[in-house]
Amino acid sequence: MKSKIILLILTLITPLGCQKADKKQIQENKTFSFFVGTYTNGDSQGIYRYTLQKDGKLSRKGLAAISNNPSFLAKTTDGEYLIAVNEISDKDTVGSVESFLIEGDTLKLINKSSSGGAHPCFVTVNDAGYVLTANYTGGNVGLLQLNSQGELTELLDIQQHSGSSTTDRQKGPHAHSTWFTPKNNDVISVDLGTNELWFSKLDTEVQKLVPSDPNTLAMEPGAGPRHLTFHPNSKWLYVVNELDGTITLVEKTIAGTYQKKGSVSTLPVDYNEPNSCADIHISSDGKFLYASNRGHNSIAIFKVNSNDGALTLVAHEATRGDGPRNFTLSPEENFLLVANQHSNNIISFKRNATSGLLEYVDEIKAPSPVCILF
C-alpha cells in the first residue's frame, strides 16, 4: 500500500489489532495517539481518539468516526488503514467489517463488508492485507482482504465451527478471536463455545482457510478460551480462558503440531466471587505476561520462565474500574493502558520492565471502552 509521509508522522503503526505496537515505529517526541473502540448502546457514538503523553497522562482528542458497536479494531502494518467490526446487537443479524482511511485524528470510511456471522467481536489483518474476523454468535471465522486502496473485498471464505462443551455458555460454537501465527500463513482461531483452538492454513491461491491436521486442540473442560498471545520465540503461546479464570501454556512441537503444557489461575487463592477473564498480552522481551480479570477487576502479572515457558504469579494490580475488557502495552512498553467497560474509564499504569509491576499514573473518562489500539 502506498505510503503517506504525513500519516506516518501523525499515526502509529501496530501489528494485528488491539495489541502492542512495533517498537521500530516509535515517534521521536514520545507522545502517542491511540484509537478506542466502544459499544454504542449508551453515550458512545463510535471510535474515539486519545493521546498518551510521555509522562503517562491521558487526554481525549475526540470522536474519530461514527460507527455502530465498533468493539474491536486493527490497523494495517503500514498504518494507513484502520479496520473495525460492527458487533450488531441482533443475534440473528450478520455483522459487518468497516475499513477507514486514517487522516490524522479522524477516520474516513472507505467501505463496509459482511463479517460472515452474527456478533463479530474480533478482527485482525496480516502484511498481505488478509483480514480475519471472529463471529461470536455465528460460531465462525470470516476471511476478507483489503485492496491497495484500502477497500474490503466481499467475503472470500467462512470457517464454520461445530460442537459444544460443558457449561451454559458452551452449548454451541462461539468464535472469540482468530490469529495469524508469526512468520507464516497459519491461523489459530479460539472458540469459547467448543472449548477448542482451531488450526488452519491460509491458502492464498484459492483464498480459503484450509483445515490443518489435527484441526483442533481442546482446553480443559469448562475453560472457555477467549484470546491468546504468542511468546517472541514463536514456540509458546498462552491462551486466556474466560470461564474458569486460567491461562494455558501451549507449545508448538518440532512436527508443527501443538500440545498443552499446563494451566495457572489468574486469581488470588482466596478469591471466590464471580470472575471472567478477557485479555492477555506479553512483553516483547518475553519476560512478563499480563491478563485481565473482570469481577476481581485486576491485571494479573506473571513472570515467564525462559527455559520452559511456565508462569509464576508476581502480583495483581487493581484496574481502578469495573469490567477491564481490553488492555494494551504502549509502543515503548513503559506504560500499560486498561479499558474498563462498565465504569467508562481508561487507566494508565507505569510499567517496570525489570519487575513487571504496574504503578497508577492517570485516569480518563471514555464511553463503554472495549478496545485500545495504538
For the structure shown, list the relevant keywords:
globular; four-stranded antiparallel beta sheet; about 50% strand; mainly beta; Methylamine Dehydrogenase, Chain H; disordered N terminus; about 375 residues
Number of strands: 28
CATH topology: Methylamine Dehydrogenase, Chain H
Please write the string of helix (H) and strand (E) elements.
Answer: HEEEEEEEEEEEEEEEEEEEEEEEEEEEE
H/I helix tally? 1
Total tally of structural domains: 1
The profile of the biggest β sheet is: 4 strands, antiparallel
CATH superfamily: YVTN repeat-like/Quinoprotein amine dehydrogenase
Assign the structural class, choosing from mainly alpha, mainly beta, alpha/beta, alpha+beta, or little secondary structure: mainly beta
What are the segments in which pLDDT stays under 50 over at least 5 consecutive residues? 2-15, 20-28
In short:
The protein has 374 residues and is mostly beta strands. It has 1 helix and 28 strands.
Could you please describe the fold and organization of this structure?
- The protein has 374 residues and is mostly beta strands.
- The protein has a single domain (5-373), classed as YVTN repeat-like/Quinoprotein amine dehydrogenase (Methylamine Dehydrogenase, Chain H, 7 Propeller).
- It has one helix at 5-10; strands at 32-38, 46-52, 58-66, 73-75, 81-86, 94-103, 106-118, 120-125, 130-135, 140-145, 157-160, 175-180, 186-191, 196-203, 208-218, 225-230, 236-241, 246-252, 258-265, 276-282, 288-294, 298-304, 311-318, 324-329, 335-340, 345-351, 358-365, 369-373.
- The protein is globular.
